[in-house]
Predict the 3D structure of the following.
Amino acid sequence: MTRHSPCVGICTLDDTTGYCLGCGRSREEVAQWVAMSEDQRDAVWLKLPARLETLGVRVRLLPWTPEDILVWVAETIAGRRGTWTIGASGAVEKFPCTAKLEIEIEEFSDTIVARTPEASFRLRLNDKVRAFAFAEGGPIVLGLPTGRAAVPSCAVITALGPDADAIDGRHRREGFFDLGFACKSGRFCIRTDDAMLADILSAHAGQHWSEIPLAIAEQITSLRPTLIVEAALARIEVFAPIRPPGGGLPIFLKSSEDIPASPVLPEYASPVAIFYPTTG
């Protein structure tokens, strides 16, 4: 597959080096990019990391094709290299890949699914997905053009019917409820086959989470629903008991204090999933 352009939408040349402050290419390389052979483009890509470091550019677009990304994602999971997350700082769900966990991995032509006894993670890829790096050994963010990254979400608790897009087929008839956090690039939901829990959630449909009495929230938690966090092309399902977080987050969300603030992408892109490598 032809590699994409390094352009990140910041097309300004540095006066000292002559390199673009967005992608690191020279004026000539930008002008000739379309006419270059694949070998010539690859040669330019190899020069960009050093140039961007010289320019002090924090975020850089990686040359990976969707096929490259799929292979790399599988390696991060199978190699137990770190943690995948979906969501924003303060409201995030995690799929840890550690040596202590038994992980099952399935790979398809454009999809990877990973499972542990406590959670499942699915990532779908298309030709618009890009990988962004921020520092050597730092997080890698998979992103989409902002217009393609939006996920339908609700501002109040909403019954969505059966979870037709569940990772495993046996869950696709279970009740699915948006918790109403109204995030732009993700949504937080509950899935359940418990009739009592479905009735409780249905009874509070149309209400904001802050309007739900604490006793009801604790009852919902005690019935052990599956917590689901979705972004465009990515999903994490958590089957383990939901632990109340410290502070003022909704009771359904785990504490995310150990996850740094989400790295900021160029304006044209929005995050799908973030990989945080294990450090130390």
Notes: The chain is about 20% helix and 25% strand. The helical segments are 27-32, 38-55, 66-78, 146-149, 195-203, 214-222. Confidence is low (pLDDT under 50) at residues 244-260.
